[in-house]
């Protein structure tokens, strides 16, 4: 009845997150090369043949850079919004491209994947919740602010990948030009350590077991700062800081953790609609 999660890479140099049950898996984003995804999954003992879908959060290069190679080698179906597909300029086999809509669950085997809109400077950005037998994992990165959608879904998650992009003091005192600092903290950019911690302290559910702090800035953050900050307040929640240089451990979610009351949801398999495709 468990879900299994790992970050294969997390940061402005590339993002790729893995969520699976015992039978099937999905990836959220593929911002590193197919070769690196293969190497990291192999080191973790994970099988790429188990991956049945790739969900794309938005069109920025650190989230899509490896998609073409991955699809070419493994013929993985790509779930993407039409606007993101156009702006990503991905040239993929149209038979492998499917659309999704925010708040409409998509069935990938026994996994249910629900997207929701978020605040970020992309054309149609989404975050995701993956559910299996009432165990829920959120993939919440590239967040300009902790909006109502994020709070709602965070409250329901047994585990989450949560952006903790920058330390406010390091950003203020750093070498980035003013326009870039303004973009990062301007409500359509990224979530600071303080914002992420406030979300965690105010809205974490009692049944949350794991928090993977993700998408840390190379220049404006430090893994030790993030780890110490959250561990101080973590209680029974296991804190993991995702790396921009490699994979994290595989964590098992939901086996012996008490879950919330079941949320009424659609269990009918969603028949994906073909998106507009190029190439």
Short synopsis of the structure:
This protein has 279 residues and is of the alpha/beta class. The chain has helices at residues 34-44, 61-64, 67-74, 82-88, 148-154, 168-173, 178-185, 193-203, 223-231, and strands at 3-9, 16-20, 25-28, 51-55, 78-79, 97-98, 106-108, 111-117, 126-132, 135-140, 159-163, 210-214, 238-241, 251-253.
Question: What this model shows, in words?
Answer:
This protein has 279 residues and is an alpha/beta fold. Helices cover 25% and strands 23% of the residues. It has nine helices and 14 strands. α5 links the parallel β10 and β11. The longest helix has 11 residues. It is globular and about 50 Å long. It starts with a strand and ends in a 26-residue tail after the last strand.
SSE layout:
Elements: E1 3-9, E2 16-20, E3 25-28, H1 34-44, E4 51-55, H2 61-64, H3 67-74, E5 78-79, H4 82-88, E6 97-98, E7 106-108, E8 111-117, E9 126-132, E10 135-140, H5 148-154, E11 159-163, H6 168-173, H7 178-185, H8 193-203, E12 210-214, H9 223-231, E13 238-241, E14 251-253
């Amino acid at each position: 009845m468990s879900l299994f999660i790992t970050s294969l890479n997390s940061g402005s140099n590339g993002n790729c997150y893995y969520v699976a049950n015992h039978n099937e898996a999905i990836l959220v984003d593929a911002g590193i090369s197919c070769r690196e995804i293969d190497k990291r999954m192999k080191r973790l003992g994970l099988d790429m043949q188990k991956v049945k879908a790739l969900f794309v959060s938005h069109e920025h290069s650190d989230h899509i850079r490896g998609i073409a190679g991955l699809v070419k080698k493994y013929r993985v179906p790509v779930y993407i919004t039409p606007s993101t597909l156009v702006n990503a300029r991905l040239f993929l086999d149209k038979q492998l491209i499917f659309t999704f809509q925010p708040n409409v669950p998509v069935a990938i085997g026994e996994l249910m994947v629900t997207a929701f809109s978020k605040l970020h400077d992309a054309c149609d950005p989404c975050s995701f919740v993956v559910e299996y037998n009432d165990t829920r994992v959120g993939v919440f990165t590239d967040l300009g602010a902790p909006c109502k959608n994020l709070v709602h879904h965070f409250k329901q998650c047994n585990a989450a990948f949560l952006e903790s992009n920058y330390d406010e003091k390091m950003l203020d005192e750093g070498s980035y030009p003013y326009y870039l600092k303004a973009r990062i903290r301007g409500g359509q950019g990224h979530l600071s350590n303080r914002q992420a911690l406030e979300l965690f302290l105010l809205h974490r559910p009692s049944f949350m077991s794991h928090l993977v702090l993700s998408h840390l800035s190379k220049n404006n953050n430090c893994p030790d700062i993030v780890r110490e900050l959250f561990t101080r307040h973590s209680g029974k929640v296991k804190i993991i800081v995702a790396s921009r240089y490699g994979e994290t451990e595989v964590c098992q979610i939901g086996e012996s953790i008490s879950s919330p009351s079941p949320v009424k949801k659609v269990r009918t398999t969603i028949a994906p609609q073909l998106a507009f495709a190029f190439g």
